[in-house]
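// run 5 | inverse folding | seed 20
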């Protein structure tokens, strides 16, 4: 009976460890997905607002793909981030018409940050 209990405890601990590992993997996938999404958004803003050339955007995308290699849905997550940034791009266009000086200040700060991110 004692051997059986030890076996059951060992099996239970093994299942908990496997479950924790699966949960950890799931959390890592979610974090990678969020990172790719953000990178796609950054790329869209860098392209449309900051006028950063396509070659640099492509290099940033490739670097992001390497950084988030564990994201099984990289292309989908990148595209989703790119699309989500449309709201920000539209906001910048509206600000440019409504408050040109504010637009230039905000654009300068944003583009400076994105220049650093894109390397």
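// decoded
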């Amino acid at each position: 009976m004692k051997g059986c209990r030890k076996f059951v405890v060992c099996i239970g601990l093994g299942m908990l460890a496997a479950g924790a590992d699966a949960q950890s993997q799931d959390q890592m996938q979610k974090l990678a997905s969020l990172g790719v999404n953000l990178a796609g958004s950054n790329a869209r803003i860098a392209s449309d607002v900051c006028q950063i050339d396509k070659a640099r955007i492509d290099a940033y995308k490739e670097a992001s793909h390497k950084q988030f290699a564990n994201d099984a849905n990289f292309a989908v997550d990148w595209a989703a981030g790119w699309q989500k940034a449309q709201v920000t791009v539209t906001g910048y266009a509206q600000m440019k018409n409504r408050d040109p000086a504010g637009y230039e200040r905000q654009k300068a700060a944003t583009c400076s940050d994105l220049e650093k991110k894109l390397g």
